Amino acid sequence: MAPRNPFRPSFGITPTVVVGRELVTMNVGLALLEGPGSPYGFTLVSGPRGAGKTVLLNLLEEARYRGWTVLRVTSSHDMVDDLVATDIPALLRDITGKKTRRIVTGGSVAGIGSVTTQAESAFPVRESLRTLLHSLVTTLDDRDSGLFITVDEIHAARPADLHRLTDAIQNLVRDGLPVAMSVAGLPYEISALLDHPGTTFLRRVCAVQLGTLRDAEVADALCKTADDGGRPFTEDALTAATDYCHGYAYLIQLLGSVSWTFSTGGRITTEDVAAALPFTRERMGLQVHAPALREIPERELEFLRSVALFGTPAPTGEIAGRMGIAANQASTYRRRLINRGLISPAGHGLVDIEVPYLAAYLRDHAED
Question: Which Pfam families match (predicted)?
Answer without folding.
Answer: AAA_16
